[in-house]
Amino acid sequence: MNKMPKSYLPDTEREGLTQNGIYLAESQAAGEAGDEETAWAWLKYAELPDHALMTMKVNLGADFIREKGLRTETAEARYGKNWLEAR
Predict the structure, then answer these.
(1) CA-to-CA distance for 49 and 75, rounded, in angstroms?
(2) What count of other Cβ atoms lies within 10 Å of the Cβ of residue 10?
(3) DSSP class of residue 1?
(4) How do residues 23-75 score in pLDDT, each as one tens digit?
(5) pTM for this model (two decimals)
(6) What is the 3-state secondary structure (H, E, C) of 16-67?
């Protein structure tokens, strides 16, 4: 089982959030604390919108998405299974 990244989010701020919302909020809290590595570690659990992933691909490259280990199901559903390889 994977050990979850360090938490920066107080329990009170988790209340009412979906699991995906917790991942996103944890990522943001880690980034605000200056812990970029942990921010990305949390983000790899999140389900990101297809357009956000496409923007990352265009601006940072497909290898960036692979290196960060980001989930890509939403983009695959919209753009096709090989969207990262497509130009």
Answers:
(1) 7
(2) 9
(3) -
(4) 999 999 999 999 999 999 999 999 999 999 999 999 999 999 999 999 999 99
(5) 0.88
(6) CCCHHHHHHHHHHHHHHCCCHHHHHHHHCCCCCCHHHHHHHHHHHCHHHHHH
